[in-house]
Amino acid sequence: MGLLTPELGLFVWTLIAFLVVLVILRKAAWKPILKMLNERETGIAESIAAADRVKKEMSVMQAENEKLMAQAREERSQMLKEAKETKDRIVTEAKEQAKAEANKIIVDAQQQIQQQKLAAMTEVKNEIGNLAVEVAEKIIRKQLSSADAQNSYASLLAEEIKLN
Amino acid sequence: MSFKRIFSFFLLVLTLSVASLPAFANEGAKEAKEGEKFNASEVIFGHISDAHEWHFFTAGDFHATLPLPVILYSPTKGLSVFSSSAFGHEGHREEHEGYRLVDEDYKKELNSKGMGEADVKAMKVGSVVAADGSKVYDFSITKNVLSMFLSVILLILIMTSVAKKYKKNGVMTAPSGFQNAIEPILVFVRDEVAKPNLGTKKYARFMPLLLTVFFFIWINNLLGLFPAGANLTGNIAVTGCLALVSFLVMVFNGNKHFWGHLLNPPGVPIGVKLILVPIEIISLFIKPIALMIRLFANILAGHIIILSIVSIIFIFGKMGANPGGGFGFSIISVAFSIFMFCLELLVGAIQAFIFTNLTAVFIGQAIEEGHHHADENGFDHAHSNEEIIL
Predict the structure, then answer these.
(1) Which residues cross the membrane (chain A) (predicted)?
(2) Given this model, what pLDDT does residue B4 score?
């Protein structure tokens, strides 16, 4: 059948045309296009890899930041706690010191009062003694104008000494 | 596009086709004058075979044909080049420089001269023979060759302009325009055809061949769908040539492992070897033959179906006293041929892909490194799934 017998001319022309297209397109089209496509694909892959890397770095940095923040927060609360403790201590110390001071002042005051009281008492005693001596002198001068009286009195005194 | 718009577009096409029917009917009428009956097979074969002139249409006695250069080589007379118009017009063929274009008249003439019936029958209508019966080699720029040259020019223009765009826009710019249409196909051939079949390391060497095969077949399939277009990829010489190219690439790239498995399959008893090796050798040659026939038959069948559907109009028109039947059937016929054209658009791309893919599969088998061997029972499994399909 006519359709199934290949014609030599068409066969040869096809071979020539196909090889010409192959050679021309290989050099002028396929190689540059495929090269460009490869370059683009590697470029895109690299960009994605770079983006991923940056993302990873970002997440690492974020984690670090959070760690730092947590640390800072902890430090702050620590400081607050310490400050409170210091405050409490100072207040307590001040209170105790004040108390001690007050006690000391009270003790001093009492001592002074005691001393002054003692001094006053001594003075009063001295004064009373002096007065009593003066009174007794005056009385004795008057009563001991007689010898009898003198004797009786001397014996009385002697009596008194014994009793003491 | 909404369904309604598609439907109205379809109606418009139908009306226009019916309106243009008188032109077709004219051609039918002319045929009728010659043979009284519409000869569908003659019309169809006229369209699908190669010719020395490009016939566009006939209106009445006017033949719109483009004469093409005839290049002949005869061992006795040497080279002769002349225009095909020297052979005269259809129905009035004449001899030129001792050569004659074979037509039915010439066959009758030869018959009356007392030439053998079988010899005359073997002559192809449309081919060139020497009047003295000597051997002639025909290297004419026929309709198919011219159409192929057009496709080659188109292909080179398109692809170089796309390549230029890549160079102009730089690597990291998104593709635009025609570049955008070509790139997915290119990437598809690379990622779905070349890489899986040839391996990621070796595929680059065969990419130019695969891409050229794919686009060459595809563009010629599409050009063949134009009215009055040449039936290039439905011609066995063309598909045979392409199959030969892929066969030669496969044979010359075959490695030790490939030839070893083919000629001396390891782990096979000698008795089985005697049967197996011839089968393997036959299968080696069947591969390109399958490629050749698959493309040829698919494209040819598409053309024949479309032409047959159109021919039905004229057959019906000739059946009754008036051509009303033809007009009536034309609506169905045109609808069918539109469907067939859409199908052929699909088939054109699919066949180009299949040819490319099978070429890649065959080359892949030839360059495959020995990583599999016959199992302990001596059975060698199929090289790939595609081999089973073949």
Answers:
(1) 6-25
(2) 60
Tell me, what's the pLDDT at B6? 56
What are the chain A neighbours of B300 within 8 Å (beta carbons)? 3
pTM over 0.80: no
Contacts of B124 (CB under 8 A, 6+ apart): A2, A5, B49, B102
* Interface contact flag, A36 B166, Cβ < 8 Å: yes
The minimum CA-CA distance between A57 and chain B, rounded to whole Å, is: 25
A17 touches chain B (CB under 8 A): yes
Q: Total domain count for chain B?
A: 2
DSSP B209-222: HHHHHHHHHHHHHH
Say if residue B293 is exposed, middle or buried (CB neighbours under 10 Å; 0-12, 13-18, 19+): middle
A13 CA to chain B: closest CA distance, Å? 7
10 Å Cβ neighbour count for B146?
18
- Within-domain flag for A120: yes
| Domain extent at residue A25 | 9-163
Looking at the structure, do residues B76 and B189 belong to the same domain, yes or no?
A: no
Q: Do both B118 and B172 map to the same domain?
A: no
**Between the CA of residue B230 and those of B160, B179, B222, B308, B367, what are the distances in Å?**
25, 27, 10, 17, 36
Rounded Cα distance between B229 and A87, Å, is 103
Residues A66-86: pLDDT tens digits?
A: 999 999 999 999 999 999 999
Backbone angles phi, psi at B139, to 5 degrees: -110, 30
Residue A7 contacts B where some CB pair is shorter than 8 Å: yes
Out of B171, B212, B242, name the one closest to residue A40 (CB). Answer: B171
Provide the number of structural domains found in chain A.
1
